Please model this.
Amino acid sequence: MNLIITGYGRMGRLVEKICLERGHKVIARVDKGGSGDYTDLSLELLSQAEGVVEFALAEGFEENCRLYGEAGIPVVVGTTGWYDKKEEIASLIKEKGGSFLYGSNFSIGAHIFFTLTERAAELIADIPDYDIMVTEYHHKMKKDSPSGTAITTGERILKGCPRKTKMQFDKLDRQIEDEELHVASVRGGHIPGIHRVYLDSPADTIEVSHSARSRDGFALGAVMAVEWLQGKKGFFSVDDFVKDFFKL
Ligand SMILES: NC(=O)c1ccc[n+]([C@@H]2O[C@H](COP(=O)([O-])OP(=O)(O)OC[C@H]3O[C@@H](n4cnc5c(N)ncnc54)[C@H](O)[C@@H]3O)[C@@H](O)[C@H]2O)c1
Model:
């Protein structure tokens, strides 16, 4: 496929590497900050491509989307920070008959982890002997906690195991309640991201764990998503892609 990369920062460069490895051609790198071949998207440029992968920043996002919609080109968006405008963007894309897929986590491995976690939570749902909890570890530069991945992990546990009704992120100065799911964050060192789910009973512990080694997984998932998007019309989330891909 002939692809355009919007946002040629850390993620954009990884997307280019994966595109080339998978036999695609990158015909343009568009970056507002000047690190690509173009600073602005245009209909003329978009008309030469079969797909776009965007990992940029939220500023200027709507303008990019207007052009994607206008061009009717399949676009995969990893850019975050615009979800409060999701409704507007969705109607803009649908109105023009475009094809758009977004997600805050494109890592295929993370989605396998979410699926295994939800299934594990379902399996212990009616066995109160098993408790369930989550820990996550990230490098000392990370500015937020818990991670978005930890929150999604917690949501999938609440879905799979209804006797857990709420997540508890804080330090506890009391006993945890049975219906609470503890999600604890540790910060330090250089860890790209470790998420662990523990299913613990008096007899044993089962662990489901995901350790990211690099950001390559996000780029690979985004490129696989733009391949999947070919021939489809509509406004999709990464979950639609993952469910279809893994036949869930
Ligand atoms: N969905 C995922 O799986 C996933 C994974 C990692 C990062 N992200 C998100 O991807 C985005 C980029 O992350 P990064 O680490 O590559 O950031 P970065 O700062 O290294 O790169 C962003 C680049 O986008 C350019 N840019 C900003 N606004 C633009 C616009 N409107 N049009 C074109 N270019 C624009 C900047 O000049 C910069 O070069 C962030 O929103 C981040 O949260 C998503």
The chain has a mean pLDDT of 95.
